[in-house]
Structure formats: structure tokens, C-alpha cells
Amino acid sequence: MSEVLREARKYEEIVEKTITDRERPLFHLSTRVGWMNDPNGFSYYKGKYHMFYQYHPYDIVWGPMHWGHAVSEDLIHWQYLPAAMGPDEPYDQFGCFSGSAITLDDGRQLLMYTGVSKESQPDGSLKEVQKQCLAVGDGLDYEKYSGNPVITADKLPEGAGSFDFRDPKILRKPDGTFAAIVGNRPIKDKSGQILVFSSKDGFHWEYDHTLDTNRCRYGRMWECPDFFELDGKDVLLVSPQDMLPEGFEYHNGNGTLCLIGHLDENGRLAEEQNQSIDYGIDFYAPQTVLTPDGRRVMIGWMQNWDTSGAMRGEDLKWFGQMSLPRELHVKNGRLYQQPIRELENLRRDRIEYKDVKVEGPDEDLSSSLALNLAEKDSESEITLDGVKGRCVDITMKIRPEEAGRLFDRFTIKFASSGEHYSMLIWRPKERILRIDRKFSGSRRAIIHQRRALVPGEDEAISIRLIVDRFSAEAFIDDGIQVMTITLYTEQEAGGISFSCRGKAMLDVEKYSLE
Ligand code: FRU
């Protein structure tokens, strides 16, 4: 084992002890120590789920990338394993960037990742170069392949850029051979494309074809691709950098994109539908795994590159968490996500309310009164006995009191101390759901709100909200959309309340998560 990896393993074991369980999320995977970004090598191997991740153990900011490692039997309870890789070879000394994992026929696990090094260029400058590399292991210890790097710039097709070339997702084809899909930035339009490489044995690779090209449609460079078949469709997930907003669908910055379609005869994705994967603030670079019982499950980095520096707890000893694992489906041409059903094993103390009337002044009052609406909201705010707690799984069905008479807005406050809280605000007339952490205790001038245009025509909306110590994920109407945020409100803030401008009826089913 290299000195770099030995040091990292020693360091994480010591420093981990300074973080108590209560200082971590209850049921989301967080970094063992230091910093975490993208999920890597999400796989099922030797009877356990393995999650590796982009990891800088020595600080709570991004740095030379290692691969952290954790395993789980149910995707909810995680156990840390020693760091799997460190930047210890000439071809990856600036980082072992994102990648994936697959099982070889001989039972070993193969990791494929992007090695980053700096190389002098013909013009004398030093530039970061990205190459695909391998490591082989037994689920605990991994050895980098002596033939590394296995995919270098000379294997790239014409027009492909050699500097942005990363995040291989390795796949097994039905005939037993291997494919790797890799993000790349073409020289010409500088946006993104997904290249497919193929290999008979997992070690020797050649360029095969191009799965899809961005052509500047969705942001620029496409990072962290994943590709799978689901419910009769072919699905490509990528995380585009530098996106521009398009109505309610995408938003500025690094975002997520799901393309649903089918492969044509040339192996290119013929796109039928495009959409965001998550409509909240903190979700990026997701990866999926196929579970032994055939479910396609996705986990994303529950963070946002543009706000990750500013949105963190003041005394936080670690930085970076993964989203809840989400079961995926394609229905009516759209991506649906549901919290992994194993989460239900944490449910305690079921509380149910039906047909609760929530009522407050309408919005169509004179403008001077409108100024006081926020106050009025809190006057008409209601709480329900037992409906509270910081770690909760709560499903709310909200509908107008009288069919056809839509209310103006319905507000759910959660993780609330009174002074600090986060909100979901549903405006059925516009069909807009807003998630808002502006009052969650953040003192930074960063984005705190996002809005989703909820598809459909139903006057009722169903929202399943899952709140952990440092996050909230709202699953809308069977999972047609999900909105994810991180939050660092003081842990005592566990209030939940409801208010309405107009008249609404509310059903609630609430569990504590333990
Ligand atoms: C995405 C990403 C990847 C890269 C990794 C580096 O968040 O930029 O493209 O491999 O992070 O940590």
C-alpha cells in the first residue's frame, strides 16, 4: 500500500472519533471525515452495496481526490471502510476523480476512474490531463492496475478534447463484454458529449462510438454520465456544468439532466424527453445501481457546487452527504423517483389526520392588507398534535375545500424553531411548488429557493417530505418531481405547521424516523 493511502487511512480512523453520531445525518451517508463529493463505484458486490465517493479527508473543502468507501446491506445503514484509493501514482497525482465499479468473472471488483495529472504542453504551459485508469480489489483493498492509464488521449475520436475527459461509468453488456461511457468536451463547441469505449476483458479498451452530443443544448461539459434501460426506455443521466435556465426546467449553474429515449441502430440515443433530475438546490452527479431484486436505485451528491462553500453549518466537522437512495421508474415518458422502500424500516409512531381544514385570508385583499399577509399567515398557522420532529417521513395530501375553488397558497413550515424554519409553498393556481430555506438560519447571500412547475391537472397534490438533521427531500405526486435541499438549522428546530391563504383540506400521515 502506498504511503499516501496508508496516511489517509490512519488519519480518517483517528479523526472520525472526533465526530459524534449526533453530529451526522441520521440516515444519509456523510463523508467519514473531511470533504465528500460525487458518488463513485455505486455497486452491489459480495452481498453488500458499496459506495465509494470523491474524498478529501484532510479538510472540509475540496482537495486532492481520494476515494472514500462505505458499505451497506440495506442502503440506509452504512458502515465506513478504509479509503480505497489515494492520489499516489504519476498519472493520478492530482486526484483520483469520479468513476464506477463492476464485478469481473473471476470475482474481483474492478474500479474505473479518472486519473488527473499535470503535463507540460507544446507551448510550455502545464495543464491538467485526464485519463481513465483501473484498480482491482476484493471489496476492501484495491490495487491500481500496472497497465494504467488504460484510456488516454490517443484513443479519442477526432474532435474530442483531451483535457476534459472524465467520469467513466463501466457497464457489462449482455454478451459479457464491457463498455465504458465517459464524459468529454469536444474541441469545437466546448460543450459535452458522451463517448463509448468497449473492451472484451475490462482491461484493454478501444473507442467504439458516441452515445450523445450536447451541442450546447444543456449547459456545457457533461459530467458523471450513467446509462441504463428502464421500463422499456433507454435513460441517460448526466450532470451538465454551466447551465442556463429554461423556464422552470433547468436553473443556472451545475445541474442535472435526464434524457429518455431509445438507442438507434448506430447506438446513439434518440431523445424523446428531457428534464431535470432534481428540482431543488442540492443534488448533483448521481449514479445508479441495479439491486439484486431488479430495482434501479439512484444516489446523488446532496450538494450544489456553487453554494457548497457558503451553505454549511458553523461548527460542522465534516462536509458532504449523499441523497436518499431513490427507486427509479419511467412512466408516461417521465422519470419517477421514490425513496427507497427500506427507509420504511426506520418508521416509528405513525400519526394520521384526515380532512383537516386549513384556512386563512385570501390573497385578493387590498394591497395595504397584503403587506400584512405574512403576519396573517402566522395567525392562521396550525399545528397538529404529534406532527413534529426533525427526522420525519411525512406525507401530506392537500386539496381545495371545495372542488373547483382553488386557494391561493398553502404553506408547510418544517425544521422550525419559530425563528428559523424551511418551507414548502404550494400555489395550485400556477401549479408552482417552492422549496425555501431562506429563514433556515443561513447567513449567506446564496440561493435559498427553487420552484418547480408541477405537471398534471389534479387539484390535489401529494407531497412526501423526508427530513433528516441536515437535509430535506420532497417527493411530489408519486415522485414525478423531487426537490432536495441541505439545511443547517439548529437540531432543536423540529416544528411543523400549516397555513393557507384560502381554504384547503389536509390529510397527514407522519412517522418519526429512528
Ligand atoms: C463532478 C466532478 C467530476 C470529477 C469530480 C472531481 O462533481 O467535477 O466531473 O470527476 O467532480 O472531484
Describe the protein's architecture and organization:
The chain is mostly beta strands. The chain has 2 domains: 3-339, 5 Propeller (Tachylectin-2, Chain A); 347-513, Jelly Rolls, CATH 2.60.120.560. Helices cover 5% and strands 49% of the residues.
CATH superfamily of the largest domain: Glycosyl hydrolase domain, family 43
Number of strands: 31
Radius of gyration: 23 Å
CATH topology of the largest domain: Tachylectin-2, Chain A
Percent helix:
under 10%
Let me know the average pLDDT.
Answer: 95
What can be said about the biggest beta sheet? Answer: 10 strands, antiparallel
Task: Please tell me the CATH architecture of the largest domain by its name.
Answer: 5 Propeller
What is the distance, rounded to the nearest whole angstrom, between the alpha carbons of the first and last residues?
A: 39 Å
Strand-residue fraction?
over 45%
Oligomer: single chain
Q: Counting H and I runs of at least 4 residues, what is the number of helices? A: 3
Structural class: mainly beta
The overall number of domains is 2
